[in-house]
Automatic annotation (TrEMBL):
This is ATP/GTP-binding protein. Residues 1-11 have a biased composition (Basic and acidic residues). SUPFAM superfamilies: P-loop containing nucleoside triphosphate hydrolases. The keyword Transmembrane applies. Keywords: Membrane, Transmembrane, Transmembrane helix. The chain crosses the membrane at residues 89-111, 161-180, 192-209. It comes from Streptomyces prasinosporus. InterPro entries: P-loop_NTPase (IPR027417). Residues 1-59 are annotated as: Disordered. Residues 17-27, 35-51 have a biased composition (Pro residues). The keyword Glycosyltransferase does not apply.
């Protein structure tokens, strides 16, 4: 972070990172400016999500203060409110509560009325017969100053208490009491929940201790008698029942056992602790500071940056900051918080206000937006999840959004021409990444298909138009590498990575045997025409290079060149194949490109790994389809090579509008490693047939996000269906069976009914079972996805999954 709020725009190599030709939208401010310079009443193009630029000064503040609850992957968090669907109890649930209860009441009535006979079980627990007889008869005892008759073993083992306990357990196990209580009591807010639980507990105590409630008029529930009987048997020789302390303790234990489930139901303890904590907070010295909205920058105030917070609050309220400015300042503060850069942060904010740490291009917004963005959450809205049967409840009619958290696992999109891949996916994602690049969080490289550039030219810092003489920038084929082996591997992947006849490893070795000696002599890598001559074995070029190496005394590079010369023309030599493929780029239209010495400034993709740049590469048009595929593979290989260098704070993403021919065995292996390198790719294909069949499975396994647009073929759909797998679902089958009557009258009625209705008398046989079914079958993907829709599955870099669901891309 520099003191003047700018960034160094030069890369780690010799060539500087280019800037756009247009003037910046915000004028530069001298370092010695004493205060924030006057600004217009509204920053140009200050669009808050979810739509367009604000028309009132409070629009950005409202966007900042909007709640963004945590949601599952792919859900548009801005304005997201999960729908609370009330739990509806099915009639069978209510019946499941009443039927066991009625049966238990009937059984208890028959038991108490004597219709169900019972007798003492001849259980001999003690050897002396008098012990058994003394324990099984009613025995008078002195309890609290009066003589009562307490039952013995018969009350404990086979009397009302045991039978009543069996009935209670049966009702609790067979009935749906838990669902009923959770629906009517468990979902109530406090204190109503605690009050209802207290009333239910009072009713239960009234059933257990009716004598404590005057005018109750019912017999006590047999809970205390079995406990008293057990106490008599265990304390017969100690005469503890005469002690009021012992009996009161026994009654207290019974009361606590009755109250315990109701205390759990009413959440009495959490409610009491919450009240106590609130009371302590209210009695604490000093009034707590109210919660400030995000538009007042509470994080800065908590860190002691009150002056900076007041200035930024005024900037937001006055409409002089847009969403890009807010996201950029928050990112810089998060990096500087608690460190030595806190002072520099305060000074820069006081000097430049919302224009601090502006992107090196000087831009504070895109000239035009076509999608809905939320830069605080890092999301772009692409549509709406369809409320289908197989969609989880949080996704019903929620917005569908993408961000770096899911793009970091890479995304594969397959759909025919006209299905909307570019319009509904590639362009919104590229626009979102370009906006996040202005905040310093992202770097984007977009490769446009021939004749269809992605986005406006003003939305990018670097535009490379291959084959266009008016192009300001050129593409370095070696990615500004200093290592001949690395440069050879990149170029070999681009030239022969899609061929089965030539191995990429052998091609890289052949190229390295030429690139190393040439660089040792000339201090640079050869241009493409020079490299082609060397690969074809041009005697004049090889002789001159050999003599230069002999004169320099570099024996290592001379041996490398001699090995290449010996292999030239041999069976299986990769040099001829490399030269033929290189001829696609050695055309007159590309004479001034790829380091050919034209007026265009060379651009290295390596700068993306160090700076949040916005780069667009336009492929050549008409008649150069194969050359465009070679360039696409070259860009993909260079991107893989540069993003693995060092630790990078910003996210890097490569967007391929047409990835035809770009997917190779080597690129699939490298895509799997991008997740750990804070990078990702977006691959758009018309059909999986553009990828070698052997790579269909590995490609689906390498990416974490998959998207099937409407109109895919069943062959492409079968690959998605295999990747998404199966799930267990509950199916209901209804079979109709004809009823055959045995009685003459019944047969006559059935015949009359068939004569009147024309249908035989049948009965339904319903079968419910769990079956394993594909989440999306190939036929459903090919024929059941409506136009303007797609099936999308997501995986975040943390490993959280979203199942394949239908997305309406037009909403």
């Amino acid at each position: 972070m520099d003191g003047d709020g700018t960034r160094d725009t030069r890369g780690t190599h010799a060539n500087p990172v280019p800037r756009p030709a247009g003037p910046p939208q915000v004028p530069a401010v001298p370092q010695d400016a004493p205060a924030v310079p006057p600004r217009p009443s509204r920053a140009p193009g200050a669009p808050p999500p979810p739509d367009r630029a604000p028309r009132s000064p409070s629009a950005v503040a409202a966007w900042l203060d909007a709640e963004r609850p945590a949601a599952r992957p792919g859900i548009w968090r801005y304005g997201y409110r999960p729908k609370e669907v009330p739990e509806r109890l099915a009639p069978v649930t209510v019946v499941g509560m009443l039927v066991p209860l009625l049966l238990a009441i009937g059984a208890w009535s028959l038991w108490r009325s004597g219709y169900v006979p019972y007798k003492q079980v001849p259980l001999r627990m003690f050897t002396p017969d008098d012990w058994w007889e003394a324990a099984s008869v009613a025995t008078p005892r002195q309890v609290e100053g009066r003589t009562v008759t307490l039952p013995g073993w018969d009350a404990l083992m086979v009397y009302d208490g045991v039978f009543f306990a069996v009935l209670v357990l049966a009702v609790g196990a067979l009935g749906s009491w838990r669902a009923i209580v959770r629906h009517y009591v468990g979902r109530m807010p406090q204190p109503a929940r605690a009050l209802v639980a207290a009333l239910l507990a009072l009713l239960a105590l009234g059933l257990v201790f009716p004598d404590a409630f005057p005018g109750a008029g019912w017999s006590p529930v047999p809970v205390v008698d079995p406990l008293l009987s057990l106490t008599v048997l265990l304390t017969d020789s100690y005469d503890l029942m005469a002690s009021s302390l012992f009996t009161n303790t026994l009654y207290t234990v019974v009361t606590l056992l009755v109250l315990w489930p109701f205390a759990r139901l009413g959440a009495w303890w959490p409610y009491a602790t919450g009240l106590l904590a609130a009371r302590r907070a209210s009695t604490a010295p000093g009034d707590p500071e109210p919660v400030r909205p995000r538009s007042q920058w509470p994080a800065l105030r908590d860190a002691g940056q009150h002056e900076a917070a007041e200035l930024l609050t005024a900037e937001v309220a006055g409409g002089r900051m847009n969403d890009v400015d807010c996201a950029r300042v928050e990112r810089v503060f998060a990096e500087a918080r608690g460190g030595a850069a806190a002072g520099a942060f305060r000074d820069t904010v006081l000097r430049r206000g919302g224009a601090a740490w502006t992107h090196p291009s000087g831009a504070r917004d895109l000239p035009r937006r076509t999608a809905r963005h939320d830069l605080l959450a890092g999301q772009v809205r692409i549509g709406r999840w369809v409320a289908a049967e197989r969609a989880p409840q949080p996704y019903h009619d929620a917005g569908a959004a993408l961000g770096p958290d899911v793009l970091g696992t890479s995304l594969l999109a397959v759909g025919p021409s006209g299905s909307g891949k570019t319009r509904t996916l590639v362009e919104p994602v590229t626009e979102a990444l370009a906006l996040q690049a202005l905040t310093g969080r992202c770097a984007v490289v977009a490769v446009s298909a021939a004749g269809s550039p992605i986005g406006a030219d003003d939305a990018f810092d670097v535009i490379v138009r291959i084959g266009d003489p008016s192009s300001v920038h050129d593409l370095d084929p070696y990615a500004e590498s200093d290592d001949p082996d690395e440069a050879a591997a990149i170029l070999a992947e681009a030239l022969v990575g899609d061929l089965d006849t030539a191995g990429a490893q052998g091609a890289a070795t052949a190229l390295a045997q030429l690139l190393g000696p040439f660089r040792a002599v000339h201090g640079r890598f050869p241009s493409l025409p020079e490299l082609r001559e060397l690969l074809e074995g041009e005697e004049r070029s090889l002789t001159a290079l050999r003599e230069a190496l002999a004169a320099s005394g570099d024996d290592v590079m001379r041996r490398e060149l001699e090995a290449r010369v010996r292999q030239t023309g041999a069976p299986g030599d990769a040099g001829r194949t490399l030269a033929d493929r290189l001829a696609l780029l050695n055309r007159p239209v590309f004479a001034d490109f790829f380091g050919g010495g034209g007026p265009s400034r060379p651009f290295s993709l390596r700068a993306v790994a160090h700076h949040p740049l916005r780069v667009r590469i336009d492929l050549p048009e008409r008649g150069h389809e194969e050359a465009g595929r070679v360039i696409t593979r070259l860009v993909l290989a260079q991107f893989h090579a540069v993003v693995r260098e060092g630790r990078r704070a910003h996210f890097a993403c490569l967007v391929l509008d047409d990835a035809t021919g770009a997917v190779t065995a080597g690129s699939v292996r490298r895509i799997q490693r991008l997740r750990s390198q804070n990078a990702g790719v977006l691959l758009a294909l018309r059909t999986l047939g553009d990828v070698p069949e052997a790579l269909h499975g590995p490609l689906h396994g390498a990416v974490g996000c998959r998207m099937a647009f409407c109109g895919v073929t069943t062959w492409d759909g079968s690959r998605f269906a295999q990747t998404w797998g199966t799930e267990w679902v509950e199916t209901t089958e209804v079979a109709k069976h004809t009823v055959f009557a045995d009685q003459p009258m019944t047969r006559a009625l059935h015949a009359l009914r068939k004569l009147l209705t024309g249908k035989a008398v049948t009965t339904d046989a319903v079968t419910v079972r769990q079956v394993e079914r594909e989440r999306w079958s190939a036929s459903e993907l090919a024929h059941a996805v409506p136009p303007g829709h797609a099936v999308l599955s997501l995986t975040t870099v943390e490993g959280e999954h979203a199942p394949p669901l239908l997305v309406n891309l037009r909403d």
